[in-house]
Design a protein that fits this description.
The protein is mostly helical. Helices cover 86% and strands 0% of the residues. The protein has 21 helices and no strands. Helix 8 packs antiparallel against helix 9, helix 9 packs antiparallel against helix 10 and helix 20 packs antiparallel against helix 21. Keywords: Coiled coil, Membrane, Signal, Transmembrane, Transmembrane helix. This is Tetratricopeptide repeat protein. It comes from Lutibacter litoralis. InterPro entries: TPR-like_helical_dom_sf (IPR011990).
Length: 512
C-alpha cells in the first residue's frame, strides 16, 4: 500500500515537472520570437520615410538595444549606417562622424577593404559639411589609397576631385590643380557631375590667383558639362563676375540678363537676388550715369526679408560704391553698415574692403584710425592664411595614415600569432626573434628616413619664411609709407620717385 502511494506521488510530481518544463521552453521560444519580431519592426520603422528623423533615430536605437550579440550580428552595420544618414539629416554632424568611425573599426576587424574605403569617403563628406576641411582631406586620401589597391578608377577619381576642391578652398592652388587633373584621368567620361565640379574648382583657383582668362576657359567647360540647372546658374554667375573684373561689361550683363530671363532662379530667392544685385551693379560700372538705385534698394529689401546676411553684406558694398560720388553721406552710411555686417559675419576680407571704403569717406581723424586698424587686420589675415596653409601642409604628412596602417598591421599580426600558437614552441621563438630583428631594422631605417625628410622640410620652411618676412617687413612697409605720403602729404614728385626707386632696388636685391 505504501509503495502504491509513493508511486502515485512520484508520478504526480514528475508530471508537474514535465508540464512546467514544456511551458518554460515555450515561453523562451515565444520570448525569442518576440525579440526577433521587435528588431525587425524597429528596423522597418527606421527606414520608413513617412516618419520624422527623430522618430526613426529612436527606432534605430531600440533595435540596437534588442540585439544581444553585438559582435557577430550583421544587422549592427545596417543600423549604424542608417544612424549616420539620420544624424546627417538632423545636422548632428559630430554624431554622424562618431558613428562613422565606429563603423570603420567594425569593418577593419572584418578586413572588408571595400566597406572601409566607402566609410572613409562618407566620413570625409561629413567632415566637409562640418567645416573640418583638413580632416575631410585626410579621410578622402585614406579612401583613395584603399581604392587604388582595389583598382576602382571611378572612386579614385571622385576622391581626388574632393581633395582638389578642399585644397582650392584652403589656398593650396598648385596642389588643387594637380589633383584635379589627376582626377580627370581616372573618372569615366559619363561622370559629368564630378567632371563639371573639377572644372569649376580649377576655375575658382584661377580666379583667386586673378588669372581671369584662365578662369573664363574653365568656367565655360564647367557650364558645358553641368547637368544640374541650379549649379549651371551659379557657375554662369561666377563667369559673369569674372568678365566684370576684366571690364568686359557687355558680356557680363548679357549673362546676368539671360539668367533672369531663363527662369531657373525663380524658386531660389537668394540666388535670384544675387543675380539682380550683380546685374544692377555691373550696369552702373559700365555707365556711371545709369540710375540703378531702385534696383539695388529693391534687392536690399528682399535680402532683409529673407535674412540673407551674406547678401546684405554685398548690397551694402555695392550701394556704398554707387553713392560714393553721388552722395558721400549716404555712401558713408552704407560703408558703416557693411563694416558692421562683416564683423557680425566674422569675415576679415569683407572687413578690409569696408575699411577701404571708410578710409575714403570718413573725416581725416577717423580715416587714420581705420587705416591703422586696416594695417593690423591685414597683417593678421596674412599670418592666419599662412598658418592655415602650413598646418594643412603638415597634415598631409601627419601620422594619421600611419596610425590607421599600424592598426591594420596589428590585426594581421594577431591572426598570425593565433596560427603560430598551434606550432611548436621552438618555431614560435625562432619566428618571433627573426621578426623582431627585421622589424627593428626596418623601424630604424624608417626613422632615419623620416628624420631626414623632416629636416629637409624644416630647412625649406625656414628659407621660405625668411624670404617672406623680408618681403613683408621691407618692401611692404616701404610701400605703405609711400601710400601714406601720397594720401596725407604733398611731397614733390621727385621725392616720391626716389622712394619708389629705393623700393625697386630693394626688391632687386631680395631677388638676387
Amino acid at each position: 500500500m505504501k509503495n502504491l502511494k509513493f508511486t502515485f506521488l512520484f508520478f504526480v510530481v514528475f508530471s508537474c515537472f514535465l508540464i512546467a518544463s514544456c511551458t518554460s521552453k515555450e515561453e523562451v521560444k515565444s520570448s525569442n520570437t518576440t525579440a526577433l519580431d521587435s528588431i525587425s519592426l524597429f528596423m522597418k520603422d527606421m527606414k520608413n520615410n513617412d516618419l520624422d528623423f527623430n522618430t526613426r533615430l529612436n527606432r534605430a536605437n531600440r533595435a540596437l538595444q534588442k540585439i544581444e550579440n553585438k559582435r557577430s550580428d550583421t544587422r549592427i552595420e545596417q543600423i549604424l549606417a542608417y544612424k549616420i544618414y539620420l544624424f546627417g539629416n538632423l545636422k548632428q554632424l559630430d554624431s554622424a562622424v562618431s558613428i562613422n568611425k565606429a563603423l570603420i573599426q567594425i569593418n577593419i576587424e572584418k578586413n572588408d577593404s571595400v566597406a572601409i574605403a566607402n566609410n572613409y569617403y562618407q566620413l570625409a563628406y561629413y567632415y566637409f559639411q562640418n567645416d573640418k576641411k583638413d580632416s575631410a582631406f585626410i579621410a578622402n586620401k585614406l579612401s583613395k589609397e584603399i581604392y587604388i589597391k582595389l583598382g576602382d578608377s571611378s572612386k579614385i577619381g571622385e576622391n581626388l576631385a574632393q581633395m582638389a576642391i578642399i585644397q582650392s578652398g584652403l589656398g593650396d592652388f598648385i596642389g588643387s590643380d594637380n589633383n584635379a587633373i589627376q582626377a580627370l584621368k581616372y573618372l569615366d567620361k559619363d561622370n559629368l557631375v564630378y567632371i563639371s565640379a573639377i572644372y569649376n574648382s580649377i576655375a575658382i583657383s584661377a580666379k583667386k590667383r586673378k588669372d581671369y582668362k584662365e578662369a573664363i576657359y574653365w568656367y565655360n567647360k564647367a557650364i558645358e558639362t553641368s547637368t544640374i540647372n541650379s549649379f549651371k546658374a551659379v557657375k554662369s554667375g561666377n563667369l559673369a563676375v569674372v568678365y566684370r573684373y576684366l571690364q568686359e561689361y557687355d558680356k557680363s550683363i548679357a549673362i546676368f540678363e539671360e539668367l533672369i530671363k531663363g527662369g531657373s532662379l525663380d524658386n531660389d530667392i537668394k540666388a535670384k537676388s544675387r543675380v539682380l544685385d550683380n546685374l544692377a551693379y555691373t550696369k552702373w560700372l559700365a555707365n556711371e550715369n545709369e540710375n540703378v538705385s531702385d534696383d539695388l534698394l529693391a534687392v536690399l529689401n528682399t535680402r532683409r526679408e529673407e535674412n540673407d546676411l551674406w547678401g546684405l553684406n554685398a548690397s551694402y558694398a555695392h550701394l556704398a560704391d554707387y553713392y560714393k560720388n553721388k552722395n558721400p553721406d549716404i555712401a558713408l552710411k552704407y560703408a558703416r553698415k557693411m563694416y558692421k555686417q562683416a564683423k557680425l559675419l566674422n569675415s576679415a576680407e569683407d572687413q578690409l574692403e569696408a575699411m577701404q571704403k571708410l578710409i575714403e569717406l570718413e573725416t581725416s581723424v577717423k580715416a587714420k584710425e581705420y587705416y591703422h586698424t586696416y594695417i593690423k587686420l591685414s597683417d593678421s589675415l596674412m599670418d592666419a592664411e599662412r598658418n592655415k596653409l602650413n598646418k594643412f601642409e603638415k597634415l598631409k604628412y601627419d601620422s594619421e595614415k600611419n596610425r590607421e596602417d599600424n592598426l591594420q598591421l596589428k590585426i594581421t599580426n594577431s591572426k598570425k600569432e593565433l596560427q603560430l600558437e598551434k606550432e611548436k614552441t621552438r618555431n614560435i621563438i625562432g619566428a618571433a626573434s627573426s621578426g623582431t630583428v627585421v622589424l627593428g631594422l626596418l623601424g630604424f631605417l624608417y626613422y632615419r628616413k623620416q628624420k631626414h625628410r623632416q629636416e629637409k622640410r624644416a630647412e625649406v620652411y625656414k628659407t621660405e619664411t625668411r624670404i617672406a618676412k623680408k618681403l613683408h617687413d621691407e618692401v611692404a612697409n616701404n610701400m605703405v609709407n609711400i601710400m601714406n605720403k601720397v594720401q596725407y602729404t604733398e611731397d614733390p614728385k621727385e621725392q616720391l620717385l626716389d622712394d619708389l626707386e629705393k623700393v625697386y632696388l630693394l626688391t632687386r636685391d631680395i631677388s638676387h
